[in-house]
């Protein structure tokens, strides 16, 4: 018999009968507590995951199309439902109020605005930087060749989008501010129509709008995000689901990571899938996808550094209602990074 067991028996022999009862009762209570906690966790495990996405959510769109996520979640007895949104802010609002459980990728600026509004969201995954996937466009025949020449010009941009941040930092680098131009705050569809019809001097767009407009009109890139804005994209969930849906989130993380790798390794088949869904020809989709990293990884505290820069720039411009501390955001960690 081991010395540890001898020690245990000596302690038990030295106890009074009432002390022994108290010792055994405490052990039974602990066992019962653990058993109840395990049972509660099992009972509280999700049986459904509601996924919100935008039409341009590449990796989620591929997963929705090929059915591999449902297959991967089947052993857990988890059903998937899909919910489409027109843009990132309504999508995260739906996450915040619990209308959906998981958000497809949104531009890096969107969680900053959600945080400023008091939303309690949890970062689940990120796509590595894709700075060339958003850019300031000018018409093919425009005399404008530098950002400095945008002074006094009418520039289309979507308020609060990653393109808005790119415009602000590009102007600042050129010694200008938003007050030196005439900003036209438009949705991507409206901005594209205005740009193609000649009603804008420039437009700040992101892929696939960027690639499709280049293909349609021959528009030139005046400046992209290289050296200015990393343009990362994030996947988020609710506080509740981050606690209950660990295994589901692990599966989602793994499938997103694998899908991103597949899209980059198979550019033509991936473009064919997305072309029909987006109403864009496959070569244009392939060009857009080439500028996106689609490299899915875990979110780190250090990796959120640019989120703070974005928050500070927008607050200084009066776009955010209050200061935001990006380090206050919650982060979920996958079992296998």
Automatic annotation (TrEMBL):
Keywords: Signal, Transport. The keyword Cytoplasm does not apply. It is found in: Periplasm. Residues 1-42 form the signal peptide. Residues 48-266 form the Solute-binding protein family 3/N-terminal domain. It holds the Pfam family NMT1. Its main location: periplasm. The keyword Cell inner membrane does not apply. InterPro entries: ABC_SsuA_sub-bd, Solute-binding_3/MltF_N, SsuA/THI5. It comes from the Bacteria. Belongs to the bacterial solute-binding protein SsuA/TauA family. This is Sulfonate transport system substrate-binding protein.
């Amino acid at each position: 018999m081991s010395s540890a067991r001898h020690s245990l028996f000596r302690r038990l022999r030295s106890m009074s009968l009432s002390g022994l009862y108290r010792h055994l009762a405490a052990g039974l209570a602990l066992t019962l507590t653990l058993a109840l906690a395990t049972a509660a966790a099992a009972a509280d495990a999700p049986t459904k995951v509601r996924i919100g996405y935008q039409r341009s959510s590449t990796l989620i769109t591929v997963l929705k199309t090929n059915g591999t996520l449902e297959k991967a979640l089947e052993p857990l007895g988890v059903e998937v439902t899909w919910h489409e949104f027109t843009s990132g802010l309504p999508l995260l609002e739906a996450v915040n109020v619990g209308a959906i459980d998981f958000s497809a990728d949104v531009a890096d600026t969107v969680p900053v605005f959600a945080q400023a509004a008091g939303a309690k969201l949890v970062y689940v995954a990120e796509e590595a930087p894709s700075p060339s996937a958003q850019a300031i466009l000018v018409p093919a025949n425009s005399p404008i060749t530098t950002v400095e020449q945008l002074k006094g010009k009418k520039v289309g941009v979507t308020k609060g989008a990653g393109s808005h941040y790119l415009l602000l930092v590009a102007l600042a680098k050129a010694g200008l501010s938003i007050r030196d131009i005439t900003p036209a705050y438009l949705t991507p569809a409206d901005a594209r129509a205005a740009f193609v019809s000649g009603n804008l001097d420039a437009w700040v767009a992101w892929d696939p709008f960027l690639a499709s407009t280049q293909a349609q009109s021959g528009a030139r890139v005046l400046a992209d995000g290289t050296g200015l804005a990393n343009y990362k994209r994030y996947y988020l969930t609710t506080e509740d689901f981050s606690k209950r849906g660990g295994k589901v989130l692990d599966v989602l993380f793994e499938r997103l990571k694998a899908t991103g790798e597949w899209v980059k390794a198979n550019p033509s088949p991936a473009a064919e899938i997305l072309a029909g869904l987006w109403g864009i020809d496959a070569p244009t989709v392939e060009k857009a996808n080439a500028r996106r990293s689609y490299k899915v990884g875990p979110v780190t505290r250090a990796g959120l550094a640019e989120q703070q820069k974005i928050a500070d720039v927008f607050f200084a411009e009066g776009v955010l209602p209050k200061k935001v501390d990006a380090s206050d955001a919650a982060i979920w960690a996958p079992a296998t990074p």
